[in-house]
Amino acid sequence: MLDKIMYYYHNNDYVKCLEYSKIYLNEDPKNALEYAMMSSFKMNDYHSALLYAKQIFDLYPTSFYGLMLAKNLLLNAKTDESISLLEDLLKRNDFLQDELSLELAYAYKIIGRLDESESLCKIALSKDPYNLDLWKDYIEVYFKTDFAKALQAHDELCIFAQTMIEQLQNRKLVEKNIITNNLQDRLQEKTRENLTIVKVYEYLNTKILPQKAYLLFKLLRLEESLKLYESLCEYNQNNAQFWQNYAKTLELSLNYQGAYDAYQKALSLHLHATYQFDLAYLLMRMGDDKNFEEGKRVYESRLFYAHNETFSPYHYNKTIQAFNKEGIAAFKDKKILVFCEQGFGDTIMYARCLEKLCQIASKVLFAPQSAMCVMFKNQLKIINTQSEKFKNLKILKDFPSDFDYAMPICSIPLFCDIKLNEISILQTPINILDRPKNKKKKIGIFWFTPNAVNSDLLRNIDFVFLFDILSKLNCEIVSFQVDGIEGIILPKEVENRGIKLKNWNDTLENLKDIDCMISIDSAIAHLTLALDIPTIVLLAPRFDWRWGKFEDPKSYFWPKANLIAFANEEDTRKKIQELLKNQFNV
């Protein structure tokens, strides 16, 4: 029976191997459990593999079975158990010490103990410096968390790779090939990459240097990133992710046509939703009719691929099919449900498109996020006393069961054929506030959103910088910050209204006496613009598509927005002070 089990395993028939291993459990539990564990592992059935690994380790607590148990614990999200086991196994100091250390390095990385993970990777490299797989583990420790450290590690590898190439050319390094078929053998032996010069160059040009170019992009060292990407194009013709990242770098470098071409190249290789999203953002950023029309259509891919973002894929698909067949006529005199699938800012921004939908449909059922429901209801009551534009609009707390079609709010420009130059003249269902009559101007401030912390496009600014500007002016300062003030003690000169804001209606009510708002790119900036409160939006040098081109920021949703791209502290300070003095009389 064991011969049959081994035969199926070594011929990659893991289903049959597992089947016969189960039959053989009572006769030879050691071999049967081992092959049952290995076959399950090979078939990515990590739950079963874990069960078998626990059984065999209990019977035969060897380091190899412990290592396989630790692997399967990690794959089943039992990280703490895996780490505890690996740390115990390492105390044995046996022949699997290096392999156990590497697995522990991986486990430490998962839970964020990155310094310890890096240290273990360095120890492994000191013992086997020509192992390119080890190098890849090492350089990726900080890849998602500390771009500067990750870049430094990539530079280390690039220098070492050049040394390897020189050693190979001078025949000081002889390539070594180890061919192993058994998983246990592969875990027990140190394996090296086939160190030919071509192999090393291919490794650098297709794996390592594209990552380095990406890290330079993340650090906004755009010129260096572009130069490196350009040198790598010929080696990565069939790498969709390469072209996607290259496109982002081109876009942030103001080469919009080059970015468009690179996005199209990525999509020709892999029709991935993320690539389409980013292409749509580029097209809509460019701010002209032709690109905006293409961008509206491409942007729909966010829902075609990510069905969990819609409340009902069936109803959305029904809507897009009707539109593709009949255009906006499909919605004439129909009952339309509008739902929100993105953030608060998008809901406020795209809400002005509801006016066009109300002109087409017999009834528009708008279901905003729960935190915005009361605000929109109250605003609609006020507007309906002044205008007929939104008479057929109803604000709902919950999704209804009776409607003809359902559409996401960000899709209204497509489904209602709203042109770029139409957007700014559509009325938002938020009532414009009367200007306050404060003797001393009240300036609202908002400087931090947690959504921007890990974003490619930074938005947050330092409170101290903002306060320092305003504290020298003859004005009252009002903070609307809800998140991000932990550890900050606001000066007594700052009124903290953020602590009493429970929903967006509270926010709106507390904005009624504000003369001017200074905010980062955030939902509250969209709200103050909708309320026609003079608003200064502070943008990072590379900002979101909603504010237009990097070199010429403007919003076709909010043409009155005062947009300041943060260059350096001194220039930004002067621009804010000049705006407040000249336009807002502060």
Q: Give the CATH architecture of the largest domain.
A: Alpha Horseshoe
Q: Give Rg in angstroms.
A: 30 Å
**Helix-and-strand structural type:** alpha/beta
Helix content: 40-55%
The gross shape turns out to be globular
Strand order of the largest sheet: 7-6-5-8-9-12
CATH class category label of the largest domain: Mainly Alpha
Largest sheet: 6 strands, parallel
Runs with pLDDT <50, length 5+?
183-193
Oligomer: single chain
Fill in the CATH topology of the largest domain. Answer: Serine Threonine Protein Phosphatase 5, Tetratricopeptide repeat
Give the count of helical stretches.
Answer: 27
**Strand share of the residues?**
5-15%
Mean pLDDT: 91
Number of β-strand runs: 12
- The domain count comes to 4
CATH superfamily of the largest domain: Tetratricopeptide repeat domain
- Cα distance, first to last residue? 89 Å
Task: Tell me what you see in this structure.
A 6-stranded parallel beta sheet has the order 7-6-5-8-9-12, sandwiched between helices. Strands 3-2-1-4 form a 4-stranded parallel beta sheet. Strands 10-11 form a two-stranded antiparallel ribbon. It has 586 residues and is of the alpha/beta class. Helices cover 53% and strands 8% of the residues. It folds into 4 domains: 2-188, Serine Threonine Protein Phosphatase 5, Tetratricopeptide repeat (Alpha Horseshoe); 197-300, Alpha Horseshoe (Serine Threonine Protein Phosphatase 5, Tetratricopeptide repeat), CATH 1.25.40; 310-425, Rossmann fold (3-Layer(aba) Sandwich); 442-582, 3-Layer(aba) Sandwich (Rossmann fold). It has helices spanning 2-10, 14-23, 29-42, 46-59, 63-75, 79-90, 97-110, 114-127, 132-139, 147-169, 183-188, 197-218, 222-232, 240-252, 256-269, 273-285, 289-299, 301-305, 313-326, 344-350, 354-360, 370-384, 412-415, 463-470, 504-510, 523-530, 569-582; strands spanning 335-339, 363-367, 393-395, 405-408, 442-446, 476-479, 494-496, 516-520, 535-539, 548-549, 552-553, 562-565. The longest helix has 23 residues, at 147-169. It has 27 helices and 12 strands. It comes from Campylobacter ornithocola. Keywords: Repeat, TPR repeat. This is Tetratricopeptide repeat protein.
